[in-house]
């Protein structure tokens, strides 16, 4: 009789293989000590799974083992697919997003199609197990061996926990990621997929107070003798008193951080649009590669004949809803934060609808898809839009809401609903630029505009993307004409920002049409921000900026009083350093670029980088992530601003 192998070996091999492959595929790492924690935390799990797989009869045990092997493989496969799609690992916090199936299903199928080899590699251990399943021992485990296995599981688990103390000093050390930080990408990299998922489930069930690790920086002191009076974007908040009287550690740390922050200065552009109307457009899949002087003259004009932001980024944070949250709140979205936003009805005082309503503006929002998509029936009121009209709450009676809807129809249908209610703040969420980008598989907008791109020298996916973005061009042209006819063009400012880059296109496809070669972490997110008025001056800004900076920039341009310390982003025209933050905690500043996956900082040519600059910036960004969560979770705006 041939010797039967222990199921423990099968489970351990499965975890080692899957953790290694995920490291390679997600973080491009092929070796090193960083594999230590995923493996050592997997060992006690393997003992437990072995016990579970040997509690019943031979037949039952074999079935249970196959199911467990499949589920584990599926978790790793799904995690990789999710990462490929949205540049962030999967977390249990995102399950609410899963109900928005249309936003992911076709795109996920596209990712599987273009990266089927990786999926098959991840599935390889499970396939091998099915082939050799009869070579393992499924006999019912004895009570003695059960006790021994449990003891070994406890010993290895305690050993794994104690090993976390080997390094407490680094920001994203295993210790900090396990106990202090909710940072899913670094955690997946350092602790592994399975441990990160386990921590996510635990934190969702029992809560988690993330620790704010304050950067070791000296706050900027205002000049004692300024050449002229300086005004700051701030209000009076008694942070010292709050610090003294607050027992909550996370709140106390947050107040200490905010108290030490230097608010942004007002500048020559402060209030230049005061009293004007504002139309804010969150453009689906919009990116700078879509803009061409001849093909999209209106977009080109708005970018180059107004404020031209040459270093602007729209980082992917969980698809459209993440881009929306960044641009409308100037806070960082994570899976947990977006869940809190949907479910806790937080006060977000400086969101455009809320901020402009206080100035007497008529606030309304429009979306040419399901009004419940991303739970917008809950989030629109938090942004200040009580007048929210979309498909299935009334808009379908006035326009065709079948997939894909037309942004031109959206403008035509809704314009007169707000145009006579000046001053107004109008928020449009577009859809026509949505993936998948093809002419055959369901993108009716791309097919509609195919004639305009048919002769371009690009792949079909790129041409379909450009065709879909033409609908945005036509909608903007229509909007400008309507504003002109209404006689309010000169008194209206149009702001347009993309929710994310077209992430179903490969980097190679994007580089077919990009004016420079882009990488897949930082530069793939490079885009345009439009802030345009018919009487605009032509100003070029090369400062690094992102969606987080859109809100404070608008508030400053419209002369709306706000406290810049309570937002993550900054007014682009302020003297604050430019910064773009990405979902994996990579970042780009005016001084250089930091890539989190390899922990390398590349300074810009000719710049002088201060001592400890990278370390302090990483700490600052970690604090920004935690601050964003605390601001929403504990309703800080209501506490600080009394609203």
Brief rundown of the structure:
The protein is an alpha/beta fold and 643 residues long. The chain has three domains: 7-168, no CATH class; 235-260, no CATH class; 265-329 and 349-573, Alkaline Phosphatase, subunit A (3-Layer(aba) Sandwich).
Task: For the structure shown, list the relevant keywords.
643 residues, four-stranded antiparallel β-sheet, alpha/beta, 23 helices, 3 domains, Alkaline Phosphatase, subunit A
Folded structure, characterized:
The protein folds into three domains: 7-168, no CATH class; 235-260, no CATH class; 265-329 and 349-573, Alkaline Phosphatase, subunit A. It contains 23 helices and 15 strands. The chain has helices spanning 7-27, 36-52, 58-86, 102-114, 116-131, 143-163, 174-179, 184-190, 193-206, 239-245, 249-260, 297-304, 319-329, 335-343, 352-357, 376-383, 407-418, 444-448, 460-486, 507-513, 550-557, 613-633, 636-641; strands at 277-283, 307-309, 312-313, 362-370, 387-391, 424-429, 492-498, 526-527, 529-532, 539-541, 545-546, 579-581, 587-589, 592-595, 600-603. The chain has a six-stranded mixed sheet, with helices on both faces. The protein has a four-stranded antiparallel sheet with strand order 12-13-14-15, with no helix packed on it. Strand 4 (362-370), helix 16 and strand 5 form a beta-alpha-beta unit. It is globular and about 90 Å long. The mean pLDDT is 89.
